[in-house]
Amino acid sequence: MRFAFWAGNGHEWSDILRTGVRAEETGWDGLWFADHFMPFQGDDSGPIHEVWAVLSAWAQATERVRIGPLVCGNTYRNPAVLAKQAVTTDHIADGRVVLGLGSGWQENEHEAYGLEFGTFSDRFERLEEALQVIVGLRDGDRVDLDGSHYQFKNAPLAPKPVGRLPILLGGGGEKKTLRMVAQYADEWNVWSTPEIIAQKSAVLDTHCERLDRDPAAIQRSSVALLFLCDTEADASKMRERDIGRPSLVGTAEQLQDEMAAYIEAGVNELIIPDFTLGGGARQDEILDRFLAEVAAPFRD
Prior knowledge:
With 300 residues, the protein is α/β, with parallel strands linked by helices. The protein contains 10 helices and 13 strands.
């Protein structure tokens, strides 16, 4: 299994650069960054950095790790422009970019920036048309599309990606999202426990079968908050809290059991956000301990 680090986009740039470079130096397999322009709630006066500028800088500052957005909101960019940004970053990274994409969900930044939000159905219709465009540009010579949301006439994409430019779709919706994963994506990501991703993977496999696609062709990744505890007593107290998101809570030995469960559920990559790690030296210590004490036996 691969292990990747997700740096929050609300830090100062110097911290984002440092943690990205350090993640590569200490053995992490991937770097991810969110695509947002402002917080979902609360104080919006702090820094929120733009994803493709950050990924391009990471691409130049690193040599080995995969890098990508987790995930780009489709409502923020024309899909051909997004493909161009991703391919340019892929050239800087010498083929290490993964293009993460989702329908877009954060309504407050659409309102603040004058971006069309539309209905739930609108956003998924736009996402599917965008996927047709991006896959067509990546894999073919030109794209023509007279869609309900996008129109393209003999559109080119040059240069082509250095690598595969895998397309990752984020989300767990079983009717729309997982069907589009089966039809268009190379990778899929969801916030999940082992139990959640096992259940949703079974749904994804069913969509693949209906579309005559090999389910094994789709890599699967999960995101979970990390709470690495020194004692069982500390872990028990943490489990009593309402964390609100899928989380890894326990001692190193207990978290190894969780890693085995993720692998049993078919997870290829586990992504750890920095949201609960505290930053600075404390974060560095937790990330180092996680790789050494938890992840080491499960590395690809």
